[in-house]
Design a protein that fits this description.
Blueprint lengths: L2 E7 L10 H8 L7 E6 L4 E7 L13 E2 L3 E9 L2 H10 L9 H12 L9 E9 L4 E6 L8 E5 L2 E5 L3 H4 L2 E8 L7 H10 L7 E5 L7 H10 L8 E5 L2 H13 L6 H4 L2 E8 L4
Antiparallel strand pairs: 1-3, 1-9, 2-3, 4-5, 5-6, 6-7, 8-9, 10-13, 11-12
Helix pairs in contact: 2-3
């Protein structure tokens, strides 16, 4: 069991927490007590790794592992790596360690993305192809090795355990609702039937002819008695409706989601550490 972590900034101006690896390593020390390291590959990409040594105990196999072109942070085991190593050696590849991480990296150099069809094992890994400036993220077919990610501030952060990411962000429920023209009658009826009509804004307007200014002043009380037909404009302010939805759902009360186009998601923001 090892821990992989890192981030990729979609633009150089994107902001990423500078203490990401420091705090992530503190959280994940149980996954990799033998060695830990993070590297800043360029202004956009950084990779980190905490190692639990199993196959190759030598320091040449410490990660993130790199050759002249590519970098890898890998967690798992490739069961047929010796077979692949021999196959790669036969086509001219040379190895400086006995680890399966180097076999993965050379397999990628030899066969590109088709290399994953060659692997028999369990893994989660990130390869950075420096020449093509591309990031390759892969998990085994049965997802035996964990890998989580989140996108924040025009950057993607990834890690072996979700707490590496949630320790840097606040995740709060985010509610949304609206009333469409097609559902307006049903929506206003439901609000009134449930004694929630006080959130409805009811605007009544009437057009008066010339010399009827005095009648307009009395209209609010006498409109129906005077025979006028008012036009009503009903609406609920979006923020008011959103607050109502949140209040009812968090209290476990029902809300006709189709009528009000209710959507519940999560809003994620970075927590700035002091």
């Amino acid at each position: 069991m090892c821990s992989i972590s890192g981030y990729y900034k979609f633009s150089e101006e994107a902001k990423v927490l500078e203490n990401f690896f420091h705090d992530s390593f503190d959280l994940m020390r149980h996954r990799g007590p033998d060695f830990e390291k993070s590297i800043q590959i360029n202004s956009k990409v950084s990779l980190g790794h905490q190692r639990l040594s199993i196959i190759d105990l030598h320091e040449e196999s410490n990660q993130p592992f790199k050759d002249d072109t590519n970098y890898i942070s890998f967690n798992g085991e490739i069961f047929n790596f010796l077979e692949l190593r021999e196959k790669l050696s036969n086509i001219g590849f040379r190895f400086k360690s006995t680890s399966d991480s180097e076999v993965i990296l050379n397999s990628f150099l030899a066969w590109g993305l088709d290399c994953f069809n060659q692997f028999n094992g369990m893994w989660s890994l990130i390869i950075y192809d420096k020449e093509n400036q591309s990031l390759i993220v892969s998990r085994d077919r049965f997802c035996q090795k964990p890998l989580f990610y989140t996108i924040i501030n025009n950057s993607i952060m990834f890690a072996s355990e979700v707490q590496q990411l949630t320790s840097f962000v606040d995740v709060k429920p985010n509610y949304s609702a609206s009333i469409t023209i097609a559902n307006r009658d049903a929506a206003f009826k439901w609000l009134r039937d449930n004694n929630l009509g006080d959130i409805i804004k009811n605007e009544i307007s009437v057009s008066f002819g010339r010399n009827e200014d005095n009648k307009a002043a009395d209209y609010a009380v006498l409109a129906e008695e005077r025979g006028y037909q008012p036009t009503q404009k009903l609406k609920v302010e979006p923020m008011t409706l959103k607050a109502l939805v949140r209040e009812r759902l968090e209290a476990g009360k029902s809300m006709p989601t189709e009528i009000f186009n209710v959507f519940v998601g999560n809003k994620t923001t970075i927590k700035r550490k002091q």
